[in-house]
Design brief:
This protein is α/β, with parallel strands linked by helices. It has one domain: Glutaredoxin. 36% of the residues lie in helices and 24% in strands. It has helices at 10-38, 50-61, 74-80, 105-114, and strands spanning 40-44, 65-69, 91-94, 97-101, 118-123, 145-151, 156-162. It has a seven-stranded mixed beta sheet with strand order 2-1-3-4-5-6-7, sandwiched between helices. A hairpin with a 2-residue loop joins strand 3 (91-94) and strand 4 (97-101). The longest helix has 29 residues, at 10-38. It is globular, with a radius of gyration of 23 Å.
């Protein structure tokens, strides 16, 4: 009995390989395109606040495109529905979510991935060791703090603890 030996058509092999690569490239392009919009964040702060500037540097170092407004943050906090009791020195908005205070970039990305129906995230006050409050002026002190998830009723739950 003779074995049948099939020859592989090199043109067909090249075409199939090209189509697979094109599909993979389109997948990556869609993912990158989707993330570009999610990376834009607007920040309202005092023009003289150094820790706010340091937090913005943290966001930019983690892939966000930041637009900063030096007009204070009270109006932005109110417009976004963030309760004053969760306030801090700056307020941001990303994809309709309020981000109050020194929230780490990784928690913002997690929020954007999960897309819960909430007002946003808050790190109330200004804990040392949080992004923007972690420079040399703070002597390496790390206060424990929680990133709070603020639901649509203004109630908080712990989204992530830093200890």
């Amino acid at each position: 009995m003779k074995k049948r030996i099939e020859t592989i058509n090199p043109v067909r092999r090249k075409l199939v390989g090209s189509l697979a690569c094109a599909a993979l490239a389109m997948s990556f392009t869609r993912s990158a395109g989707a993330s570009v919009e999610s990376e834009r964040i607007d920040v309202w702060k005092s023009p003289t606040c150094g820790c706010c500037k340091d937090w913005i540097t943290h966001l930019e170092a983690n892939g966000f495109s930041v637009s900063s407004f030096d007009v204070g943050n009270s109006e932005a906090r109110k417009r976004l529905g963030m309760p004053v009791r969760f306030g801090s020195c700056h307020t941001a908005e990303v994809q309709g979510y309020a981000i109050e205070g020194h929230v780490p970039a990784r928690e913002i990305y997690r929020l954007l991935e999960d897309k819960p129906n909430v007002i946003g995230l808050s790190v109330p006050a200004m804990p040392r060791g949080s992004p923007g409050m972690d420079g040399p002026a703070y002597g390496g002190v790390q206060d424990p703090y929680d990133v709070l998830l603020i639901d649509s009723n203004g109630m908080a739950s712990v989204f992530q603890s830093y200890r």
